Structures are given as structure tokens and as C-alpha cells.
Amino acid sequence: MGKEKKSASQRRQAGLAAAASARNLNRHQEQNQGVADRARKQLVEAQKYHTDHVNFFPNTAGPFARESAEFHLHAINFLNTEADTGLQFARFAAESQNPKVVARNRRNARLAYDSVLKYLDRSAPTEEELQAVQQKIAALRELLKSLGEPL
């Protein structure tokens, strides 16, 4: 079997389809480039933020600058991890049908909530860090209320 000749309308349709495909490809490439640009910008901001923190603590903490900076980073990581853990326990409690599992997970979520509140002031978070933790705490508080936990 040989190649059949395409009519003019078939060639035109094929050309239109190829052009549409090329436009879609360009649009996707532009979207992906936009995502990559935003990611690059966020990376630069994160590096600047890290540099600012590293430069801030030596000027304020004196001989214990490195230890102070490490403590701050670990304290913020603890708060975020504890809030995330509490949210996860609350979600598990909300999804479970077993009353014992609900009670256990609600209790664990409440412990995480109380821990974050207890140590939040001691960690001296920046505005951005405080806002991120407060968003998690607010979500956790709402989940706990929906589970019947008195706050």
C-alpha cells in the first residue's frame, strides 16, 4: 500500500491541528516558565531570609550566636511540626468511626494544640513565622471545636 494523497481540505485541517498544538505547547511552556520563575523568586527570598537570620543572631547574641540561631530554627521547626501533628490527629479523629480512636486522636490533637500555645511565646518567631503557625493553630482550633473539644 502506498501513501494516499491527502486532499487540500485534509492538508488544511492537518495544518490547523498542528498550529493549535503548537499554540498549546507554547502556552504550557509559558505557564511552566511562570512557575519556574516564581519558584526561583521564592528560593531567592528564602535564601535572603536565611542570610538575614544568620546575620541577625551574631549581632544580638554575642558569643552564643550560633547556638542562639540554631535554637531559634529548632524552636520554629518544633512549633510547625507540633501544629502539623495536631492537625493530622484531629483529621484522623474526624474521619474515624471508632469512638476509642476518636477520643485518643482528639486527646493527642489537644495536647499538640496546648504545646504550641505554651511554647509559642518562648520561640520569638518573626512575623512570617508567627503568621504561618497561627494559621495552623486556627485550623486546629476549628477542628477541635468540631470534634466537641472544649477550648
Describe this structure in words.
The structure is a single chain. The protein has one domain (9-146). The longest helix has 54 residues, at 8-61. The termini are far apart. It has 151 residues and is mainly alpha-helical. 84% of the residues lie in helices and 0% in strands. The model has no long low-confidence stretch (mean pLDDT 85). It is flat.
Tally of helical segments = 4
- Main sheet makeup: none
Head-to-tail CA distance between termini: 79 Å
* Number of E-state strands: 0
Shape: flat
Count of discrete structural domains: 1
Q: What proportion of the residues is helical, as a percent range?
A: over 70%
**Mean pLDDT across all amino acids:** 85
- The radius of gyration is 27 Å
Order of helices and strands: HHHH
Contiguous uncertain segments of 5+ residues: none
Q: How much strand?
A: under 5%
Secondary structure category: mainly alpha
Write the layout of secondary structure elements.
Blueprint: H1 8-61, H2 65-95, H3 99-120, H4 127-146
Helix pairs in contact: 1-2, 2-3, 2-4, 3-4
In short:
This protein is mainly alpha-helical and 151 residues long. The protein contains 4 helices and no strands. The chain is 84% helix and 0% strand.
